[in-house]
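Why do we bother with holo predictions? Because pocket geometry can differ from the apo form. Keep that in mind while you read this record for pyridoxal-5'-phosphate.
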Amino acid sequence: MEQRFHTGSIVLAERMSRLGTESAFDVLVRARALEAQGRSVVHLEIGEPDFDTPAHIVEAGVDALRSGQTHYTPAAGVPELRQAIAEYVGRTRGVACEAERVVVTPGGKPIMFFTILALVGPGDEVIYPDPGFPIYESVIKFAGATPVPLPLREENDFGFDVAELESLVTERTRLVIVNSPHNPTGGIIDAAALAGLARLAVEHDFLVLSDEIYTRMVYQGSAPSVIGLPGMLERTIILDGFSKTYAMTGWRLGYGVMPPGLAEQVTRLVINCNSCTPGFSQLAAVAALTGPQDEVETMVAEFHRRRDAIVNGLNEIPGITCRTPAGAFYVFPNITGLGRSSDEIANILLNQAGVSLLAGTAFGRNGEGYLRLSYANSLANIEEALDRIARTVEGLL
Ligand code: PLP
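The structure, written out:
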């Protein structure tokens, strides 16, 4: 008989058994429960800037609400925002980008969901980074396709090896997902690896979903996009958005840039799912893209300082080693010297030290032996967390 998936007495559709989750939200709930008992917890688990949305962006949103932007909007996004995004992406990625390539969504995450659902199903293979953002694998499985993990290794600065990628490509490979700068490691894919990816995409006729949500958070060098390489404009879907760059997580605003035919299909998914993205958020986003960028620069400079502090602090703790990541706002220290699993260490640090962070395994099997810490928190809190970790870890060795 067919195995059914239950929640209490309710029988769920089989596909729900294939859907994963993002454990950062579960860990946050556990950390908040400890705080409710009066415990002090330093939050290094959640990936969101601790800055406020710049005031001129908030004003644009408020003005939009006051002027009646409280109705449905076109499903693919308001024309002024699609145009502003097309110009921004064209300028920053060095490609000719028309507004018809842009689909605006409530956050960047729906672009993952919609493009994977639109492109793959049973019998198709999708290559994705491991460690990597857990929603990739979750949605690939939900769509009925086969997830194929591409290992990212510390000795390779958490970039991928082109020969290894090539060895994973089959005639069933429809999509390869890359993420640079990378969550959870902060790694950046270098130009040589991107060139290898583009060559394979053209040779084997697959598409690339390039998650570039952290593209403005780079502290050394740059994070080039695959979309500018020969043959890739028609094979690449860029995922980007406003959550991280402009500290706008709660506005729910992101977008995809993709070939126009695919944009039409993704727009059909938008219509079936959420109809459209709120108009006032979209007009705030126009102000974000076209207005002053100095607050973004200030925020990135502050993340840079924190990155250096957290990397130095972690490397001083016996049993822990940490590479210096080039981008995003995460570090991915190696904790194999502590002789316990990532999960055990993450639990000990939450329950004994009051430091909330994630086990590397929350990002895939290749995350064993690592932790992920977000440094989107004040320097003072980072120093406090480092002290607590050092004291607790000392007792384990
Ligand atoms: N991609 C990656 C790698 C992320 O880490 C996140 C958020 O944590 C997102 C996409 C989606 O962000 P949002 O839906 O807030 O735009």
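The chain has a mean pLDDT of 96.
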